[in-house]
From TrEMBL, chain A:
It is found in: Membrane. The chain crosses the membrane at residues 20-41, 61-78, 99-116. Its main location: membrane. It holds the Pfam family Sdh_cyt. This is Succinate dehydrogenase subunit C. InterPro entries: SdhC_prok, SQR/QFR_C/D, Succ_DH_cytb556, SuccDH_FuR_B_TM-su. Keywords: Heme, Iron, Membrane, Metal-binding, Transmembrane, Transmembrane helix. NCBIfam families: succ_dehyd_cytB (TIGR02970). The lineage of its organism: Bacteria, Bacillati, Actinomycetota, Actinomycetes, Propionibacteriales.
UniProtKB/TrEMBL annotation, chain B:
Keywords: Heme, Iron, Membrane, Metal-binding, Transmembrane, Transmembrane helix. One of its GO terms (molecular function) is metal ion binding. The chain crosses the membrane at residues 41-64, 84-102, 123-147. SUPFAM superfamilies: Fumarate reductase respiratory complex transmembrane subunits. CDD domains: SQR_TypeA_SdhD_like. It comes from Kribbella antiqua. The keyword Transmembrane applies. This is Succinate dehydrogenase / fumarate reductase membrane anchor subunit. GO terms for cellular component: membrane. It is found in: Membrane.
Length: 125, 161
């Protein structure tokens, strides 16, 4: 533990950073969700309108943004489960460091296959 | 989610919580012993329960739409029509829409309460948030319930023949 206050950082350790990252990914996912419901609503307009707008999701730059979106969703999902375990599981706080590592491991295990498959779709593999 | 405590070196006093001023002023039942409603408790619990459901709903959605078959390249009107021909996916998407919007709206409400310091700013940001959320939830629900796969004249679905 630091003996002196360190600016506005709350200890500045992984507990604070996962809290910050949970907020940032949550806000990002929420704004994507608003857009995603609106673009899906175009199925009520016409097949052409929907297909044209969903076509932008297949653009390589947007394809890379989707990688970022999935990275954010996977972190938010498993960090959320870590929060639930810390809140409700009696041993959660004691194993908080291991839980943090677990979030990272699951994130990598799911993210890597996704990136390979998604980018091969986007870049026409 | 709780905010990290203010640093004692920066703030000499602890500000009153902003989020429960409304519930403190409410008259009537549904209060706990300290005279407040349990709204924040239920909201906290809802974030955890809906979060668990959303892990399954959203990761399932991503797996089926982005990993199986042609992934993103296969997404078009016919793909949506094929999925919503199955009541399972209609219910799945409806649940996902409602839970994700409530979860996200409540998350943003917490963030507005934490960072917007003026009463007026908080009020207008939350008014904007709730308006946008209601529009999106109602629109999305209507789309799922009124979807017409036969808008596509080349549809191969049996209902369109």
């Amino acid at each position: 533990m630091p003996s002196k206050p360190a600016g506005t950082l709350y200890r500045g350790r992984e507990g604070m950073w996962s809290w910050v990252a949970h907020r940032i990914t949550g806000v990002g996912i929420f704004f994507f969700l608003l857009v995603h419901v609106l673009d899906t609503a175009l199925v009520r307009v016409s097949p052409e309108a929907y297909n044209e707008v969903i076509g932008t999701y297949k653009n390589p730059i947007v394809g890379l943004l989707e990688v970022g979106l999935v990275a954010a969703i996977l972190f938010h999902a498993f960090n959320g489960i870590r929060l639930i375990l810390v809140d409700f599981w009696a041993k959660g706080p004691r194993y908080q460091r291991q839980l943090m590592i677990g979030v990272g491991v699951i994130w990598v295990v799911l993210f890597v296959p996704f990136v390979i498959r998604h980018l091969s779709h986007v870049f026409g593999g | 989610m709780p905010s990290p405590p203010h640093h004692p070196g920066r703030m000499s006093e602890i500000a009153a919580p902003r989020s429960s001023s409304r519930s403190r002023n409410l008259k009537g039942g549904g209060r706990n012993r300290s005279g407040q409603t349990n709204f924040e408790l239920y909201s906290w619990l809802f974030m955890r329960l809906s979060g668990l459901a959303l892990v399954v709903l959203v990761l399932g959605h991503l797996f089926v739409n982005l990993m199986l078959g042609g992934g993103i390249t296969a997404l078009d009107f016919a793909f949506v029509a094929g999925k919503w021909a199955n009541p399972l996916w209609q219910v799945w998407d409806l649940l996902m829409l409602w839970l994700a919007m409530l979860h996200g709206t409540n998350g943003l409400r917490t963030i507005i309460n934490d960072y917007a310091e003026k009463d007026q700013t908080r009020f207008w940001l939350k008014a904007l948030l709730i308006t946008a959320s209601i529009v999106v939830v109602v629109l999305g629900t209507l789309v799922i319930f009124t979807f017409d796969p036969c808008l596509d004249p080349s549809s191969t679905l049996s209902v369109c023949k």
